[in-house]
Each structure stands twice: as structure tokens, then as C-alpha cells.
Amino acid sequence: MSVRVCQEEIRRIFELHDSVEYGETLHQSACHFLALGWDIVALSAGGDLYAEIDFHGPERIWSRQLVDWALEGKEINLGVRTGKGSRLLVMELPTQEGVFLSYLSGGGSSTCVAETGLGRRLYFYSITDDWQPPASFLVLSFQLMVYGEGGLVLLPPSPDPDTQVSLRWLSPPWETPPCRLSEEMKQYLSLIACGTKITGHPAGPDITPWRTVYPFVASSPEILAALYTPSESEQAYYQNLLKTALAVGRQDPQVLLSLMWYAPLGNARDHPQGRQFLTELVSSMVQPAVPNGDQKVVKTLKRDRHFGQGATACAP
């Protein structure tokens, strides 16, 4: 007597197999994350917390829950709480904008990277106990999301909620642990943590990395104050910052241009012609004036009138 298995039963068998396999993958991944000291949580497809699954409890309990719930058809994702609890800070950027991190760190970037299903990457950094990370914030103009204190980041192999494509490690943390967040990166995050805009346009080879500009800023309280002093217009903001730098003896046009580029209350970076505008401004104030040189800068500002609309107050 032959036994016939209908297509529906075959489909269900494969689904159960996939569920068990996914549950075991979650268990294995969770063990890796816990060994790194990460504060991980279980999340639903909608991002709600599954408080019943406690990764701080006995492994035999939560591992069984992962498999049982997967067999019941519940979608379970893994997330990590960023900040001091996990000693972790994560930056999310479009794949093509990862060069931004190289500009800040002088050519280096995170050694631990995950890829989402939306053409974006997650860059993981370790932080020390003596540094207080900023709260999570978004920089719209650079499409940069920083997961700091109180943040929650979805982890592979969880599926992206928008595309259902599973996140994947390009370099998993148990093989390549997150590198230490540099002092230059910490200082720059402190500058932009208030939510001011950072450019979406590549900086270009004529912009000095932040690690070189930072000592220039940190050694001068006057420059630091000027960075956070809003003005009635974008032109006035940049001119005041440049005059302050010149007044304390800073004369290098290259570093001055880069200082203008990274200035947190400026938005010249948000315009394709912004670098040209900043270059002309620095040239007009550092070098001897050329005939009609100031007029050329003014014409640039008039043509891009919106430059003057973006400066807002930001507490240091």
C-alpha cells in the first residue's frame, strides 16, 4: 500500500525545516553576540520587543523559545542595544557614502560591517567606558544614522522589514571585532550630534580629513565658539568663522577650507557648488584681494540664495 503525500504537506514539511534551521541560526548568532558582551533582544517583524525571551537568562530556556516560536510561525529578529550597555556605536550609511567615514578617520573605517537589503551598510565601532556616546540621531542631508546611547540596531540574519532581504555580515564581529572608535570620530560626532546637517556630496581630495582639522579646532576656544555661534545668514556665519581663525593665527588655506566644510552650522556642503563657494571665500580673505574678487563671492551667494537659510542654534 503506497503512501501519497500531497503538495500542501510537502510545503509544510519544508516550512518546518526552514523554521527549525532559522531558529538554530538565531541561537548560534545570539551565542556569538553574547560572547562579545552585547546586550541583545528579540524583536517581532514590526519591531516590537519580545520581553518573554530573556537572553540574560539560562541559554537552555531562550534557545528553546527561539526554535519553538519559529515553529509556531512567529517571525523573530535579533537586535542589539547600542551605547554603554554593549560598548557599541553603530553608523548606518548608504553603501556609496561609506567614504565619509574614511574622510573623518583619515583613510580607515570600521572593521565590522553588515549590509542591509536597501543598499545601506552598518558600521560597528567599540567604545570605552570613559566616553559617553551621544543619543541616537539622524543627519538627513548625509543619510547618516548614528545609533548611540539608547539605540537599537537590527542584526543579521534578521530580514530587513521593508525588503524582507536578510541582513548579512560582510565581516562578522566574532571573526573581526569592531575597531575602537577614534578620538577624532568622537569629537566630530559631538559636533554634529545636535542634528545639524552634513553633506551628501563627496568631500573630494582637496578636503583635509577631520583627524587633521580637529587639533586645529581643539587648541583654540575662539574657533570652537565660532563654530557654534549662529548668524543672520550663511555668508555671515562662514565669514565670522574664517575671521576668527585668521585672528588666532591660522593661515593655511587648505585647513581653513576644510574647517569651513566641516562647520556644523553651515550648509554650503549641501549644494553641488558649495565647495567652490567655500574655496572662493577662503581665497578672498586669506590672499590679497583681486579685482572684483569679493563681487564674485557675492554673486555666488546670490545665485544660491538658500545658503543663508540653514544656520540654526546648536548647544555644544
Please give a structural write-up.
This protein is of the alpha+beta class. The chain has 10 helices and 10 strands. The protein has helices at residues 7-35, 59-71, 99-105, 183-192, 210-218, 221-227, 234-247, 253-262, 274-286, 293-303; strands at 40-43, 77-81, 88-94, 112-115, 120-126, 137-139, 144-147, 152-155, 168-171, 179-180. Strands 3, 4, 5, 6, 7, 9 and 10 form a 7-stranded mixed sheet that branches. Strands 1-2-8 form a 3-stranded antiparallel sheet, with helices on one face. A hairpin with a 4-residue loop joins strand 6 (137-139) and strand 7 (144-147). The termini are far apart. The model is unreliable at 195-203 and 289-316 (pLDDT under 50).
